[in-house]
Amino acid sequence: QNSLLSATGTTIFTVMSALALEHGAINLGQGFPDYDGPEDVIEAAAAALKDGRNQYPPLTGVPELRQAVAAHNRRFYGIEADPNAEVVVTSGATEAITACLMAVLNPGDECVLIEPLYDTYLPVVKLLGAIPKLVRLNPPDWALPRAELAAAFGPKTKAILFNTPMNPTGKVFTAAELAFIAELVQRHDCYAICDEVYEHLTFDGWKHIPLMTLPGMRERCMRIGSAGKTFSLTGWKVGYITCDRSLAPNVAKAHQNLTFTTPPNLQRGVAVGLLKDDGYFAGLSAHLQAKRDRLAKGLAELGFGVLPTQGSYFITTDFRPLGFNGDDVAFCRALTEEAKVTAIPVTAFYASAGAPSHYARFAFCKGEAVIDAALARLRPWV
Ligand code: PMP
Ligand code: GLN
């Protein structure tokens, strides 16, 4: 057995979803909407299914989707990308992250990661034989610790991988923070792998800025998007990478060895989605903002310390004010078993010792009735 994999536990999202099912709990743990994505996107995929679009598509993605990814990049960010040479479609952002890491890391290279971090990052960096350099953001404001970040870069640094808007913190990196990262990446002549799956899920006027749009960064960034998040279709697993033409061939080779291609019918649906009018994208964030507000207000009324969320599907809460005697894992277990509501312990997003253990993450990408029902179950328990 591979020792790195046998040392990796089952993902917390699967563990908590199974526990939710076992106890009949309302699942505000794993981040998936309980509503469907846009009908025209689903129709387009269904039409492609019935239209015989069911054999291997081109390795880097169907032309319609690559063109739509390029058009989306131009419309929202002014990024010019050649759909034939600078876009690679993958089976979800999860594969995209692995493909980008594979494309640039050699054994012994260092890769800077920011904690709290999404759970696939670290195992993949290690499997590639690269050395993770972890830099920790601290609650409640999750500001970038600049001196520590600068110290994590060195002569062996090959890449930084980070996520904005950020799961689980709800943080949107500021222009100043991104400029600081850009400067380090250029000074150390390395790459940035940018997990931007929540790019359209920002609130209160916060705008997502791709690192790729900063001066000097166009050639150094691999920018990752996900149809799962942008179209509320998390089971589809269609991701897309935009990167310079010098990087794309290696990214494509990684994809070739991981999955080779991604279902062509789903790709055609996503192509329709990325070409939807601006109103769709504005509506997506407005609807989610209302859900965030509903859950945040309810949790605050129950006595949780609710941290601000600028983007993503998630609210991070401090449960110390409730007087619970135990850590976040015990809290989320008790919440599921006793209150019948499931959340995710935030320590699952930390790999190094000494992580804060009094935070629970709640997903708000749910119908209003479900959010209200969860709050009603929590009321007598807290
Ligand atoms: N990155 C982050 C930060 C995520 O939260 C997720 C959630 N699923 C992913 C990547 C994976 O996206 P996908 O489902 O497209 O693989
Ligand atoms: N990204 C989702 C979350 O953070 C879950 C994805 C998964 O289950 N692997 O909740």
From TrEMBL:
Cofactor(s) it depends on: pyridoxal 5'-phosphate
Gene Ontology CC: cytoplasm
InterPro entries: Aminotransferase_I/II_large, Kynurenine-oxoglutarate_AT, PyrdxlP-dep_Trfase, PyrdxlP-dep_Trfase_major, PyrdxlP-dep_Trfase_small
One Pfam family from the record: Aminotran_1_2
MF annotations from Gene Ontology: kynurenine-oxoglutarate transaminase activity; pyridoxal phosphate binding
Boundaries of every Aminotransferase class I/classII large domain copy: 26-377
Swiss-Prot/TrEMBL keywords: Aminotransferase, Pyridoxal phosphate, Transferase
Membership in a protein family: Belongs to the class-I pyridoxal-phosphate-dependent aminotransferase family.
Listed name of the protein: Aminotransferase
